[in-house]
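Model it.
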Amino acid sequence: MSAPAVEYDDIQGLVRFGYKRLTQACFLLLRVTDAQAARDWLARAPVSSATTQQPPPTTALQVAFTCAGLQALGVRQDVVEGFSHEFIVGMASDASRARRLGDLGANDPAGWQWGGSPEQLPHVLLMLYAAPGGLEDWQRDVLAQCEQGFEQLGYLDTADMDGVEPFGFADGISEPSIDWLRERAARDEEVDRYSNLSCLGEYLLGYPNEYGAYTDRPLLDPDRDPDALLPRAEDAPDKVDLGRNGSYLVLRQLQQDVAGFWRFMDAQVAGDPALRKQLAEEMVGRTMEGEPLVGRTGERIPGEDDPRNSFTYGSDGEGLRCPIGAHVRRSNPRNADLPPGSPGLLSWARRTLGFDATALAADKVSSTRFHRLLRRGREYGSAVSIEQALSSAPANPGDATGLHFICLGANIARQFEFVQSAWLAGLRFDGLPGDSDPLTGHHLPRDDGTPTDGFAIPLDAGPDRRVDGLPQFVTVRGGAYFFLPGLRALRYLSRVQP
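Modeled.
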């Protein structure tokens, strides 16, 4: 029996499209001032769906809520409690979460421009996208429609850097492919090769994920939905599903010190341009054009549509071509579910129980397929060339440049928080001796004074080449966890609930 078809008309379009062709965008951080007026606007808001349109639209609007935002709209507490714990407490909720996420020192939420305290936390995120030249009018129209119910807490502008992130590297190359046709087996099973194809339930609530399970979300008795706005839950047909076709959205404003990055690289190689580029690429894990340092395998990875992604790290276990601590290797280690070995029950038992030393050494990283992120970020500020970064007078003094990091996933803890804490901020990634991510790490010493500001480049003979004294290149300026509802759920939330 085939799985039910996906309801594209109930999914916000950001999940499916990313709106890359709508190169202008801004993100409005709002707080509810009049709950009834806010609900009235949400009931008629022109939110774009994931249906295909011809011709393609020239504008798009997406809406997401923090937990505080749902409460400000009047959503009942027992409904709110059906969402995940991480969403309810928020990104900046406690010192322990800040430590795990690397939000220490200059990244401390106390210093954020928004989102770091209850007073600075937005209730609603409006994401506006437009074709070139169309954003200003679109933004003015949307604000005029919703001004009675909201006040603006913050405004996040974006910039179109033509597929290149502020440090100068090709970006947005590797994204998971979503199984929109629901053909992939949604069950927890061991696999022996890397695939880029992910179960729908990894990114949308209400569908089975890579474990074959449905992520927790608010499931309500039908009498709580008298107008039958919500769909029935696949895994509990006697309940209506507030989460179905929705996703959690993580937004972090990351300011990048482009001049500091290239000046540090330049100082390490005594000004040699070729070596400067090589060192930067070793820290990133790809060439500036996006080619993998480990090299292409020549075989297509299932679910990949960019030939620059036809690679794994299976032939580079020691990191001789791509350092183990490189940013893209940490972000997506691409390991399979099983460490290498011959087929058969005995070999499986030896690998699984840890008796095979070779397999054990290759199994230090949790399987990637359980921790993928669907990225939808946008750059902001002005592009800075390497020459401008190295000049004594920056091209745009005082102009903040960076990335509005946005990712979607059905499980904040298992996806964003795991990747951020265990792989990027973590000091023991794949057996490394105390280094965090060279690009995004804060590089502060541990409580006992042990430094974490190094980067190891393995060599074929002899000890690793070490780069120490890494400064902080990326600083968190704001962040929050949001719920991006399905369109039927959005209409439900716009009504006073029973």
